[in-house]
Design a protein that fits this description.
The protein is an alpha/beta fold. It has eight helices and eight strands; from the N terminus they run αβαβαβαβαβαβββαα. Keywords: Metal-binding.
Length: 204
């Protein structure tokens, strides 16, 4: 996200997230964005990207930590090739609810994410991205959310909201569950992540 899309988001209905994507770290005045975050329902997409961002790691971390000044708000975290650093920072700032977007990180970190009662998202790339499929295989269902990341073109395929159903089907296939079961689990996880519902579904 950038400042323009953050402003547009605040005019929308539903849950509204505001933040600066790590690709835009260093390009926007932090204080302006933080004032907008105060009006938002959650923070994000924010985080670290050690692979694709042109900003230095130091600048990215500075921006990210500034956006973690709202521990009561859920945070949508981008952490490509920076999973452990991003996790450690949200723990440091005692973030109540963190959602690790398009998780393709270390499988052993999933236990720490679960222990912190945080979440990961699975998107339609799970249909063909082996690493994302392995994450679904290992991750407990209680931390799984779905998203589209759309519209975004990945490996020649357009990921868009209409494809979330395919992500649900793939999760069900990998986990050996019915699609309706996965839908209920994801809905419950969404409530806990964004609406502070304490009911926790059983792990699978």
């Amino acid at each position: 996200m950038d400042l323009e899309t953050s402003l547009a988001t605040l005019k929308m209905k539903g849950l509204r997230g505001v933040g600066i994507h790590p690709w835009n770290a260093g390009k926007v005045k932090i204080d302006e964005v933080k004032r907008l975050i105060e009006r938002a329902d959650f923070v994000g997409e924010v985080g670290l990207d050690y692979r694709l961002s042109e900003a230095s790691k130091e600048v990215q971390r500075m921006y990210f930590e500034e956006f973690l000044d709202f521990p009561e708000k859920p945070v949508n975290v981008h952490a490509l090739d920076a999973w452990e650093d991003a996790f450690n920072l949200v723990i440091k700032h005692e973030i109540r609810s963190a959602i690790f977007h398009w998780y393709t990180g270390p499988l052993n970190l999933l236990k720490d994410i679960e222990g912190a009662q945080y979440f990961i998202t699975i998107n339609p790339s799970v249909s063909f991205q082996a690493k994302h499929q392995k994450v679904v295989e290992v991750a407990p269902t209680r931390i799984i959310l779905t998203e589209s990341d759309g519209g975004y073109v990945y490996k020649g395929k357009l990921l868009e909201p209409t494809m979330v159903t395919e992500a649900l089907k793939q999760i069900a296939r990998i986990k050996g569950l019915e699609v309706r079961q996965v839908e209920r689990i994801v809905e419950e996880n969404f409530r806990r992540a964004f609406l502070n519902n304490s009911k926790i579904p059983s792990s699978t």
